[in-house]
From TrEMBL:
GO terms for molecular function: eukaryotic initiation factor eIF2 binding; GDP-dissociation inhibitor activity; GTP binding; translation initiation factor activity. InterPro entries: ARM-type_fold, IF2/IF5, Transl_init_fac_IF2/IF5_dom, Transl_init_fac_IF2/IF5_N, Transl_init_fac_IF2/IF5_Zn-bd, W2_domain. Residues 179-189 have a biased composition (Basic residues). Transmembrane segments: none annotated. This is W2 domain-containing protein.
Amino acid sequence: MALQNIGASNRNDAFYRYKMPKMVTKTEGKGNGIKTNIVNNVEIAKALGRPASYTTKYFGCELGAQSKFDEKTGTSLVNGAHNTSKLAALLEIFIKKYVQCYGCGNPETEVLITKTQMVNLKCAACGFISEVDMRDKLTTFILKNPPESKKGSKDKKAMRRAEKERLKEGEAADEEQKKLKKEVKKKASSKTSKNHTSDEDISPKHDENTPEVDDEDEDEDDDDGIEWQTDTSREAAEKRMKEQLSAVTAEMVMLSAKEDEEKKKTPKSKENGVGKEEKKLMMEMKEYLKKGSPISELKAFISSLSEPPQEVMDALFTALFDGAGKGFAKEVTKKKSYLVAATEEDGTQMHLLNSIGSFCGEKGNEDAAKEVALVLKALYDEDIVEEEFVMEWYGKGLAGAEKSSVVWKNVKPFVEWLQSAESESEEED
């Protein structure tokens, strides 16, 4: 069976992995009873992840003709004689409206019906929720005939429950172990206290018959006849004051030296959350971009900078997308050529991902953080960032102190999509 890429925009992509069968139609009957049979509609609908009744109904709605899908036989019929090219063109519109993600264009979407009876598409790759135009006639049919929930959802819930139970059991085991450790420590401490008491018993007791020695007599014996006096002369007093002052001065000098050392060790002084050096670097990067120099010269300019590579990438990313919020993903797609030039060296992909994370994680960039998965999908499709670096970056982010950040929550759908794509390719192999 001949296959083609899903979506007209992907028609010429030889490496596109989402494919569907080419439409095959057959005209049946004569006169007023003539009908068009979409022979392989079931296979097409399966490839699109939609019920075959949806595509059949859509053809009928758009052509203004009666349509019928037989669940038992899998036959899709549309009244009238319609050529294959016309129906194929309508199918492309159906894919754009009811299959492809409005954000990243990926066809791996799920139809969701909200509590307010709205039809949405949830993307498995970027997590974007696409709102379908409810003025279309097909939306009424979808609301009356909602798609069946995925078979694996029950299994997933069961797996989540089992995982929670395992975690609870693990926590209970940890508590038991802590209790045991505490009991062992108590026993050990009680033994040591007993040993101390026994030592006290062993120590020699005061003998009542032994004659007591007066403390004053002892002091007199210790002095060995030496009399101690303090020099109260003016010269001696001035000398003592100078010694005290010099000690205080020395202490102050030591404190100031310690402060200087701490300043050197700590990061550059911050001004409104951005270091002075970082701000200077960003301004320098903006000035370079304003000149309109060829993108091919960007690599040489970056190499000429003395700052660490991560700081340079942060400055470039901020200079390119400063102020970008809603529509952040579109801006990245527009300026992707700069990112291509900046990620030619080894290790720069991770620097770019770190810059994306820090940019989206800053206060005031909440709208940009919502589109972080779209950005990663666009960069991944353009081979600017590779799967292994994304997975490593995501793993480090979750293990870090800011694992609860909204950035990682929004990145998660894209990572899960990468993992599912990898498992599918392994199964195919």
